[in-house]
Amino acid sequence: MTVAFITKTNRFQGEVYDHFTDNHIYMALVTARYFDNPSTRERLRRMGGTADFSYEVAHWGNEEVPVYGQPYASLQTLSRDPKLSMDTLNIALKLLTEKVQQLQTAAGANGRVMIKWQPIDTVRGPELQSLQKGRATVGIGLMTILAVAGVLSLTRDRRRSAATPPRLISTRPLHS
């Protein structure tokens, strides 16, 4: 699931979304550090989140120099059991809501201008991950062919060495 950190304001008619600011990006980054913390991961487990969980802030840089320009984050859970995966995601979203609110109230923000997260895509639900048996079979087959070729090459060289008698080098001069 992908979320955006946004601020909603009411202006005249209906809700209006303010533009993204550095504060929105910082909120995405701070919550990423929160979820990367071992104590948060332990809390997630104690609350029943048993699936593998990852939280990553979107960026358009590279791994050495990430460039964060928009406040988007992806939350992903992975489990063999679809229910455990969804339960973990729901618990993580609850923790995300608590952390976002706690950070802002601790800094003195009030409810009118608080940053919130909002899903920007739907939860796709459990997706069965294939084992990709075809790729595995081809990989094993290629490794077997390479191993057989290596063994044949080594044994052929040894047989050739054993079949050819060693050449003796004469110590006599060629011209006497």
Secondary structure topology:
Layout lengths: L1 E5 L1 E3 L4 E3 L4 H15 L1 H9 L5 E6 L14 E7 L3 H25 L9 E4 L13 H31 L13
Antiparallel strand pairs: 1-5, 1-6, 2-3, 4-5
Largest sheet: 4 strands, antiparallel
Give the % helix: 40-55%
Helix/strand/pairing category:
alpha+beta
SSE pattern: EEEHHEEHEH
Approximate strand percentage? 15-25%
Number of strands: 6
Low-confidence stretches: none
For the biggest β-sheet, the strand order reads 4-5-1-6
The whole-angstrom Rg is 31 Å
Distance between the termini: 92 Å
Mean pLDDT: 82
Number of DSSP helical runs: 4
Question: Notable features of this structure?
Answer:
176 residues, two-stranded antiparallel ribbon, 4-stranded antiparallel β-sheet, elongated, alpha+beta
